[in-house]
TrEMBL record:
It comes from Roseomonas populi. Residues 575-691 form the Response regulatory domain. This is histidine kinase. SMART domains: HATPase_c (SM00387), HisKA (SM00388), PAC (SM00086), PAS (SM00091), REC (SM00448). Residues 267-298 form a coiled coil.
Length: 696
């Protein structure tokens, strides 16, 4: 069972005919439940337990069946439990028109009838309602268990504190008391002890105050608290402390004082003795107490001032970080927008002037600026760990060897490049393009740290992290592949290392760095399930250590990574449904499809798209955004579409790695993701690949 289902609430499924069980299981997973399919009536009956959330079964599955075992289990449920049943019926509906359904209602109790055929959304709604009701029952069970535990702890606490409990009915004047309460007043458990006995036992001097306190509590509802002397049957004098609270029944009637009593004779005796001994010290103690109170108040004031100062500091740091982030974004995007807008203005002027010979240069400049803007957003997504990754089994040594010529050209002749690669290196599961970008960024940073030349070493190693070693790196224990990039440059101070992964933080001169390189590498490593660490010393160089998760299987051979192919023309009649709430994106996708010869159908939201799918026309591919408006996102639309058209190929287009696309696992077969922004030729090639059924 997948890990996502182990933690999901369990729903019993008893639909032995046809594909009912498979369909029900898929819909239950969509509703957030883990289906448990029961192959026969005996298995279904055995699965009915206090831990099951609800049950889905078909009416025909119970026809002519002996339901006494199920009825017995339903009847044997504890008071808090009322297991919901969802019965899928055929024509005939619920118990008001269907005698068989009425019989099932009597046997099962908490039952909802859902007539087939039904819409998947309707089924999901009924399942979620049953799940919500069952969760309330589980909460009631927890409260009952907590109440029992509380009662046990209260009883233990009363015994440990030698507290006696009592209850006085105001209207009837009757007093009920525990054995411990009787002992406070010198009575044995067998001796009667009513309200009259209580009054008679109180010292005559204390009796009026006690009765006045009782009346005041009854009239005002204030808590009852008093200490008084009482005379035991043997004539000895004792002190009792009595506490109570006025309670009423649900209708606000039948007032009762409910409380506890304790023998405080020893305490009062000690207090009296201490008072007599310290009469001369009373004034000094009072003065010292006042001094301590003032000191305490001063400490509290100082602590509050410190708290306010720390809060202001934290807020200032937050605003500084936000200001640095937004300022860097505004600066970079303003530069890029200037290039884009300026190029477009010049294109418009040249067209108005009838001068077309320079249009290519302005178009190229605009596209280059837009490409840099896309790269900037990808770096931001990498830092925030929301980019779309395409992990593959990679042989890291082969990837480094393939980049060696590029690295040599990038760092220049003044820097010596060395390799220290482990021969039997494990494979790692990462996005190869992002890993190449990360490695190149690290090499560029190393080059910039060695302006007078030096030595750059790229190394790899296998690393098994367990216990404290994994915890220190904030990684799960396991096997990792280590990538080291070490230079002999200027190194970093402790302060610079602390801020190295902050977005837009850079030690380079203004205009020579965006400050996003290391933050992008950090985000990529964390999103891939790995980590990055810095080891550096001023004047001695820096070593960047990138930990990547090990892949147990074989790595892809060099040259097997897929490449984008030229998109051929469509076959007559091939149709693509485009669903996107952004009109401009929808228009561009439709234009590409029409240029390729496809018939394009478009919708602005999931509901309209689903209606087109249900209409029955030809649709070879669904292209949908993930973040659609309304009650249905792109993934929900794809799932609903595959219920109507099993096997329909789906291409998700998204601006970031929305968890709604893949949930806790991988994409299903026939589904792919294309990250915005994308080139139109890349979109065309991907559409053609999917329609032709080729795997990337």
């Amino acid at each position: 069972m997948p890990s996502s289902e182990r933690s999901a609430p369990e729903a019993l499924v008893f639909t032995p005919n046809g594909r009912d069980a498979t369909i029900a299981a898929a819909l239950l997973r969509e509703a957030g439940a883990a289906p448990r399919i029961c192959p026969d009536l005996a298995a279904f009956e055995a699965a009915i337990s206090d831990e099951a959330c609800f049950a889905v079964l078909t009416e025909e599955a119970l026809q002519h069946a002996d339901l006494r075992g199920i009825a017995a289990r339903v009847a044997a449920q504890p008071p808090w439990s009322d297991l919901p049943f969802i019965v899928l019926t055929r024509s005939g509906g619920g118990p008001e028109r269907n005698p068989a359904a009425a019989h099932l209602s009597e046997v099962l109790g908490n039952v909802t009838f859902l007539e087939r055929p039904f819409h998947p959304i309707t089924f999901a709604s009924v399942a979620r309602t049953a799940l919500k009701g069952r969760h309330r029952q589980f909460e009631a069970r927890a409260r009952i268990e907590q109440l029992h535990e509380s009662e046990g702890r209260l009883s233990t606490a009363l015994q440990a504190g030698r507290l006696g409990t009592w209850e006085f009915d105001v209207e009837s004047g009757t007093l009920g008391s525990s054995d411990a309460c009787k002992a406070v007043f010198g009575r044995t458990p067998e001796q009667p002890f009513g309200y009259g006995d209580l009054i008679a036992s109180i010292h005559p001097e204390d009796r009026p105050a006690m009765q006045a306190a009782v009346r005041a509590s009854i009239e005002s509802g204030a808590d009852y608290l008093i200490e008084y002397r009482n005379i035991w049957p043997d004539g000895t004098l004792h002190w009792a402390e009595v506490r109570a609270r006025l309670v009423r029944d649900r209708d606000g009637r039948r007032p009762r004082l409910v409380g506890v009593s304790s023998d405080i004779t020893a305490r009062r005796t000690a207090e009296e003795n201490l008072r007599r001994l310290n009469e001369t010290l009373e004034e000094r103690v009072a003065a010292r107490t006042a001094e301590l109170r003032q000191a305490h108040e001063a400490v509290l004031v100082e602590a509050e001032q410190r708290r306010l100062a720390e809060e202001l500091l934290r807020q200032s740091q937050k605003m500084e970080a936000v200001g640095q982030l937004t300022g860097g974004l505004a600066h970079d995007f303003n530069n890029l927008l200037t290039g884009i807008i300026g190029s477009l203005d010049l294109i418009q002027r040249r067209i108005e002037q009838g001068r077309s010979e320079e249009l290519g240069r302005y178009i190229a400049a605009s596209k280059a600026a837009a490409g840099r803007a896309a790269a900037l957003t990808h770096r931001l997504l990498a830092f925030s760990r929301r980019q779309t990754l395409d992990p593959k089994p990679i042989a890291l040594n082969q990837l480094i060897a393939g980049m060696e010529e590029l690295v040599v050209r990038t760092v220049g002749p003044a820097i010596e490049l060395r390799s220290a690669l482990q021969e039997d290196l494990w494979a790692t599961l990462v996005d190869p393009n992002q890993l190449e970008n990360a490695l190149l960024n690290l090499c560029i940073n190393a080059r910039d740290a060695m302006p007078q030349g030096g030595r750059l070493t790229i190394g790899t190693a296998n690393a098994s992290l367990r216990g404290h070693a994994a915890g220190a790196l904030e990684l799960a224990p396991g096997d990792y592949v280590l990538l080291d990039v070490e230079d002999t440059g200027t190194g970093m101070s402790e302060e610079v290392m602390q801020r190295a992964f902050d977005p837009f933080f850079t030690t380079k001169p203004l205009g020579q760095g965006t400050g996003l390189g290391l933050s992008m590498i950090y985000g990529f490593a964390r999103q891939s399930g790995g980590q990055v660490r810095i080891e550096s010393e001023l004047g001695r160089g820096t070593r960047m250590r990138l930990y990547l998760p090990r892949h147990a299987g074989p790595a892809l051979e060099a040259g097997t990574l897929p490449a984008t192919a030229d998109a051929p023309r469509a076959t007559a009649g091939e149709t693509v449904l485009v669903v996107d709430d952004e009109e401009t994106v929808r228009m561009l996708v439709v234009e590409v499809l029409q240029d390729l010869g496809y018939a394009a159908v478009e919708a602005a939201d999931g509901q309209d798209g689903l209606k087109l799918i249900q209409a029955g026309g030809r649709i070879d591919l669904l292209v949908t955004d993930v973040g659609l408006p309304g009650d249905m996102n792109g993934r929900q639309l794809a799932d609903a579409a595959r219920v109507v058209r099993p096997g329909l190929r789906v291409l998700f287009i998204t601006g970031y790695a929305e968890t709604a696309v893949v949930g806790e696992g991988d994409l299903e077969e026939g589904m792919q993701v294309l990250t915005k922004p994308f080139a139109m030729d890349a979109l065309a090639s991907r559409i053609q690949e999917m329609i032709r059924g080729r795997q990337r």
